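Subject: for your reference before the review

Hello V.,

The reviewers asked for a structural picture of the protein, and I figured it would be easier to keep everything in one thread rather than splitting it across files. Below is the amino acid sequence we used in the manuscript, unchanged from the supplementary table.
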Amino acid sequence: MGDKQQDNAGPGAARRVTLRDVAQLAGVSHQTVSRAINDKGEIDPATRRRVLDAARQLRYRPSRFARGLVRPGATTIGLIVSDVVNPFFPELIAGVIEAAEQRGWQVVVGSTQDDLEREPALLRSLGGQVDALIAYLFQPDDVLAAAVEGVPLVVMNRRAQDPAFGAVDIDVDRGVRAGVRHLVSRGHRLIGMIDCPDACDSARRDAFLSEAAAQGLTVAADAIIGVEQSMAGGEAGFAELHAARPDLTAVFAFNDLVALGAYRAVRRLGLAIPGDVALLGFDGLSLGELLDPPLTTIYLDKRRMGELAVAQVQRMLAGEQPGLTMLETELLVRGSA
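And here is what came back from the structure prediction:
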């Protein structure tokens, strides 16, 4: 019962020895421990012996999680997304997996379930099992750095302030500005927005307001409403927006998921799209093509985003300095605007 390696530790039992415990005793990073134990090469023989001696001294053995999901000798990437149910993420996940498989790597996926407070714990947990991390996160860089403890990290949909992080950001400004200019070119002067402040992403709202001003438009405070990032949020948001500002002739939604909900509200209210109100989304989800008329949106290649993140990981594992890669966006004109 006193064995530190006991899996089902009850009250009073010693905790399980972790890879980080071995790293601390050996005086190396936990990434080095992972490579030494999995015989991945590129490690000084003396360092490898020191790591293995520490592992034996602590009676360390890989967790059942690692034995079951991590192929010995393979480079493994941990991928963290906000919500696997959100239709934005399956294409992103597919892009990461495909790019990793092309390199003979494997991917372990985790979700924060749209809970910012879960991010550090998930980073620590998954970071102890993998060689590098790719993550769609919202916590500040200093919080992320403390959680990853030196594991290579590529963040998405943001520009890293920490020079140790790689980053793949979305060219939101260009896309949103193109969308606003398109609406203006169609004769719209009274344009509202359904925003998602809980997404901690103000770039879309900032670009919307900036380009509206550049086009000589005045966006009143009651022409922007904040909702949760969901179809239900979009539906409730449009109903509230239309009640406050029935004169609006076009609405920009934070993303396509919210736009789908707004679309439903427009129809429920007996309004015509785009005759009574034009709708513009962001993300370019394929679901938008199923509507009649199809949803006009700011398109971004989500698979490509995953591929770019894996390429960043490859450079970081090769010892190169991480940097910023921008994912382009483009206006995809369909029928809703």
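For the response letter, the relevant points are probably these. Confidence is low (pLDDT under 50) at residues 1-14, 64-69. Residues 302-317 form the longest helix (16 residues).

Happy to draft the paragraph if you're swamped.

O.
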